[in-house]
Amino acid sequence: MDQRTKRWLWILAGVLVFVVLVVHHNITGQEIIIFCVLVPSIILHEISHGYVANAFGDDTAKRAGRLSLNPAVHVDPVGTLIVPALLSLGSVGFFGWAKPVPVNTARLRSPRNQGVLVSLAGPAVNAALAAIFGLAFVHFSRADVLSSGRFSTGAEIIFYASLVNVGLCAFNLIPVPPLDGSVVFERLLPARYWPTYLKYRQYTMPILLGLVLLNFFLYPHGPLTWLFDRLYNWWESVLGV
What we know:
Helix content: 55-70%
Radius of gyration: 19 Å
Structural class: mainly alpha
Distance between the termini: 50 Å
Number of helices: 11
Number of strands: 0
Oligomer: single chain
Strand content: under 5%
Low-confidence stretches: none
Order of helices and strands: HHHHHHHHHHH
Mean pLDDT: 82
Shape: globular
C-alpha cells in the first residue's frame, strides 16, 4: 500500500470518528465549528513556514510537495485526527497539529537570521488570520449579535475563526522547543551551548505533549487553561462581545 493510499485511509478513519461523535452527541455544534476552523488554520500555519523558507533559498518543502493547499498532504493521523477526536470524546476541548513542513536551515542564505523568520512565519499567519476574521466579525456580525443576543451560524464561524487563530498564535509563541517561539531563545543562545542544547532538544516534544495532556486532565484548573481563558476573554473584549 503506497503512502497516498495510507494517507487517504487515515483521513477516512478520521471522518468516520467525527461522524460517530456527532451521531452520538459527544460533540456540540460549537465544537464542530471550532474543529472545522482549527484544521485549515493549522495547515496554513505549516504551509507558511515552507513558503518563507523557499523565498530564502530552501526549496525542501516545495520539492516535497508541501506548499500545496491540499489538506491531505499535511494531515498528521495522530495530531490532526486522533488526538482531537479523543479529546472530544472526553469533552476537554481541542488540541492538534499538522505534519511539520520540512525545512533545511542550512540551505537558507542566512541560516541563523532567516531561520528566525521562517519559524515566526507560522504565528504571523495565525495573527493575520485572527485580525482578518476579527475585523470581519466587527464589521458584519457584531451589531446583529449584540442586538439579538445570539450568534447566527455565520457569525459563530467568523468569531471562532478569529478566536482559534489567536490561540494558535499565542501557543506557538511559547518559548519551548519545538514550538516556534523557541527560535528566539535559540537565536540568542551562545554557540558554545549549542551541542548541549541539541542533545536535549530531541526530548522536548514528548515533554510538551505530556504537559498539554496534563493540563487537559486538570481542566478547568490547568495552567494553560487559566492562561488561555484570560487571553480569549481579552480578545472577546477587543471584538466587543
